[in-house]
Fold this protein.
Amino acid sequence: MKKLALHWRILIGMAAGVLFAVALTQFAWGKDFIVDWIKPFGTIFINALKLIAIPLILASLIKGIADLNNLTQLSKMGLRTISIYLMTTVLAVSLGLLIVNTVRPGAAVSEETRAQLISSYETQAGDRITAADKQKKSGPLKALEDLVPENIVASASSNGNMLQVIVFAIFFGIGLILIPADRAAPVKGFFTGLNDVVLKMIDLIMLAAPFGVFALLAAIIAEAPGADLFVALLWYAFSVVLGLGLLYCMYVGLVWVFTKRSPRFFLAGIAPAQLLAFSTSSSAATLPVTMERVIEHLGVDDEVASFVLPIGATVNMDGTSLYQAVAAVFIAQTFGMDLSLGTQLGIILTATLASIGSAAVPGAGMVMLVIVLAQAGIPEVGLALIFAIDRPLDMCRTTINVTGDATVSMIVANSLGKLGPPEEKNWDDRLDEVI
Ligand code: ASP
């Protein structure tokens, strides 16, 4: 029997989760029931994905770099990846500024609503401001300093240190290229095998994806704040979503123009990763699935995907940078501030850097937004204005972040002649082959 494609099963899981939560929250006990008995399954699913992120980065990046066989190839790929990532991020921030200045969502918020929003979310906004303060206090080269860990075991013990693990893996891979082939062979063999094992584990986890997203979405709906304040933020949300939608079209167009792959092919290949990004709000948790989809379903060579995607998940966040630009100007507008061209150009720079610095976890973009606000002289307490609607927007921007990474991996692979036909293993698409 031909099974339904994975993305359809995930979509059905999501819709069922929403309906289930809407129905149950009609009862007084509904919310507690979902939080106590359904949400943990969503957490288990996300944990399972996070569990393999570090082994995956280590195995795939070391194997990928060793496969390149020479350092010229590596620096060529590195340079292309970083330049394209930077270009798309600057483009995203500029697009965000263009939209927010045209739609002017801040003008739609009345004085009364502003006061109400600020008093409702002041405490939560305060927490984010404190978190951002810690980041701000560090010196200008702190981010660079943090790239090189002093102990790889300590770094690998937290998913928050993904960039350090990436640096170690690249360094290790370079060492592997430079030693004689006969000595390198067993080490390479080990990491190749490890990589295959991890990819198979992702297939297995993905079998549970429809159930995992069911639990995640049910919990999000059950725990959502009241809808009345949402309405005041409708134009703001519209501006962010419009920008993200345009970015989405841009990616599909870029894939088409540069790699000649049709939108249908691209979207069918990447859809499960997008749906997962939407359900988890975390590029890091989605990374294993993004890798698997890009390699097996979009035809990107694993040495390119294993380099471009982990770096992208941590530093390339176009959706986040667009959101930060829109949110900053929106807050300024609600406070009746008119931002000069110079300030807005400053926002392009700070939002680009802030999105690079944002961790690939839920809500991280909002913490870094504080830095954008501070640089532009916009009151940080304005964060409270956008709090109510941040989670749904986080879900949308994470989807775009992941799509952006996949797009760049295809373009880089194509430019290096490493984009081929997909090699679908179909494991995760057919349960009957597993058991
Ligand atoms: N949740 C986003 C991500 O993981 C980051 C953000 O908060 O914008 O990509």
Q: What stands out?
A: The first helix runs from residue 6 to 24.
